[in-house]
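Friendly challenge for the regulars: who can give me the structure tokens for this chain first? No prize, just bragging rights.
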Amino acid sequence: MNPLNSPLEVGMRALVLLSASFPEPLDVARLVYLDHVMLHSGDMDGPPSLHPSLPAGPGELAMKRHLVEQGLVVLLRAGLADVEATADGLSYRASEEGPGFVDILEAPYASDLKDRAAWVIAAQASHLDVRAATRAITDRWAQEFQSHLPAPGSDHA
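First reply, four minutes later:
Bragging rights claimed.
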């Protein structure tokens, strides 16, 4: 099994985000968006990115929702997160133990995640239209991709 983007790794990143927003809950769509921004913060006028930009960027966002959902299951089973049903759907929050667990993580990557999570939670308004923000990321990738294509009628086939 690939440890990169495993349910455990994505769950830990979700826990870092949930702890940064504690006690405010986050839904899956917001977690997907915030996880992307946390990892690619340099692309969003923030601190240097933790992960490199990849040519398959839009595919990353499409796959991330499933991974975040799997990660949340890991957190719920471990008692590090709670789920609540709201009029808008399911929302997740760190359990009382979640922030304390995040605080004991000492690896440099974990420290960088905590810094980026604090930045992204502070920078993103709770009323952010996640669909529009996600669409803006996808549109930016499409523009970058098109800018690397040869111009119509050029000799580059």
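Strands lie at 81-86, 89-94. The chain has a mean pLDDT of 82. Your move, everyone else.
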